[in-house]
Amino acid sequence: VLKLHKDMLFVNLEGNLTMGAAHTLLEQVRVPEQFTRVVLRFREVQRVDLSGLESLRELVEHMHTRGVKVWFTSMNHVVEIKAKRFGLLKLVDKHYSRTAKFLADMSRVK
User: Fold this and answer.
1) How many CA atoms lie within 13 A of 68 on its CB side?
2) Which of 21, 90, 91, 98 has a CA between 20 and 30 Å from the CA of residue 70?
């Protein structure tokens, strides 16, 4: 977890988001109240299954109920295709293939 800005939290997801690990995702990714923007970085996620996609949807929807904006970065091609088919990319404010592109865009936001 990395604090990028006073109200932005960067979360590095790791491992496979499959049935064995996915059910605890909501418990593992705790966002303190002061953060209103969260970036979920998927660089270390190799695989995701239906359980993982459902857990990610739960996580994003939970953050939205708190008024938190969510971005995804660095999904590998296979994970991105699955997330897109599941409708997960429609739930986030934007998806960036590379974290560097996200950071460049954020540097232009005042």
Assistant:
1) 24
2) 21
